[in-house]
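Quick one before lunch.
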Amino acid sequence: MLASSSLPCSLADINEASSYYFLPKNPAPPLPTDQELAVETIRRDFPALHQQINGRPLIWLDNAATTQKPQSVIDAVTHFYSQDNSNVHRGAHTLAKRATDAYEGAREKVMHFIGANSVEEIIFVRSATEAINLVAQSYGRRVVGPGDEIIVSILDHHANIVPWQLLCEEKGATLRVIPVNNNAEIIVEEYEKLLNSKTRFIAIPHVSNSLGTVVPIKIIIDMAHSLGIPVLVDGAQGIPHFKTDVQELGADFYAFSGHKLFGPTGIGVLYGKKSLLEEIPPWQGGGNMIKNVTFEHTTFNSLPNKFEAGTGHIAGAVGLGAAIDYLTDLGLAKIEIYEKDLMAYATETLCNIPKLHLIGTAAHKAAILSFVVQGVPSGRIAEFLDRQGIAVRVGHHCAQPSLRRFGLDSTIRPSIAFYNTFAEIDELVWAIQQSIR
Ligand code: PLP
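Model of the pyridoxal-5'-phosphate complex:
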């Protein structure tokens, strides 16, 4: 239900925004772009896409929650468990060597994929959530003290709010929040005002998971660095859509989850600059992260093992490596162009539905189309869509502050990936229209 009739989310409002590049003046017919990425061929690689849900072909538009997996990822995980399964780093036998090669090979793939300087900068964790908690608990605890400030944004997922809030409570520090304008764009001038001599750390999203805003992370990082303040980028919704180079960005930390990148669940990555990772203490203790243990004193392993206590998700890392191979073969640049056209088409067609309000109309947006329909409960629409085999997310998307900024507790959130088609968007639009009749 809309709390305000002045939400900047109607098509008219969007057309007024001159910088709104998702509505090209003469939209190109979708077919050639479709062919460029050979989407119909690509779709054959994803077995989960070829099933019926409630008697209708599945239309998977819940990609921001998790992505479907190509057969090559499924095969890599199966191959690992059926042929190479062993623990890593600590065995003199053949399978231990194979498993270690596969695990460390995946680390190298991640390093190349994000443009890191060395494998020492790639920490395997459970997910983006765990990566952020690691930084908050290890780096944050060391540098933040009473009276200090940490900056996050109103667009952040709870995973990039709560760990910093917990740290602030523990240390007597204050959480400051970068606001957004009515298009859900970060107000850079307000961010600048928040920066001061008490600021110890900045944590921002690459892309908002609830409203789709692409955050100007390079600008934010450069401004922070000019004052010597480190920045963590929550890349969970950025890396699946853009070629990401952490060195080019200058990010001190970059966190993401494998399962949103067409890889397995339970595996994620924390990138950290080597100089910072070397400086900070381990987060968890256990096997693998030590060099020498006595009851008097323990010395720690070198990077990246220092931050990987216990047995990690070895098969998950191998699957993530396969996902990276798959995406590299497709080409991130091609994916970006295709998704931009698909977003433009989806934005335009959704906006033609009477009383539908897009929430989040940033000039630079990716993959996410949050909306409400005035006078119609979102749950009713989502339920109808499910009956048509269309999977979308409804709710607060674990980003309550971002929705409350627009007077809302909940939106319907279709989110796209490169395997979605223009025809699927047509089906979505048709189903929404039916649900609100
Ligand atoms: N950050 C963002 C922007 C997200 O969208 C999500 C999940 O939706 C997360 C962090 C947390 O990801 P995970 O649950 O995989 O740790």
